[in-house]
Amino acid sequence: MKNIIYSLLSFSILLSFSSCNDDVAFEHLHTVDVEGWDYRKPVEFTFNAPDTSNKYNLIFDVRITPNYAYQNLWLFVETTEPDGYTHIDSINCPMAYPDGKWIGSGLGDLIDNPILIHRSFKFVKEGAYTLKIKHGMRHDFLPNIQNVGVILKQINS
Fold it and tell me: Which residue among 57, 66, 107, 157 sits deepest, i.e. has the most Cβ atoms within 10 Å of its Cβ?
């Protein structure tokens, strides 16, 4: 019975990796320091705007362990546009329901929580965009965060 479960699980994982991701324009995942995510060390992502005519969703992907101590995660996101214009957003990312159950999905000791940040937007400018993300929690080091990532998906009409 265990072999059947492991076979099905392996097949499911393989299928998810081999599925078509033509709508993903950019995806990158940073590994956070094992000691904890230092708020003074933002993770940085740079990508080129795929075009200015299609619509996109911007998703932050946060992977935590079950020992993460909070119900949410505050992020400060500094966006630098191709012409150098920079703006900063504060984003409250829910990580758990009020009853303590994790919002994301997980397998083993990792909970994956993709968070839709910008829905159905168009790039106004062509060129390179840079996102610098740091946490805005009350402690300098935030333990039990494994990865922070960005996914940019084109919306197919």
Answer: 57
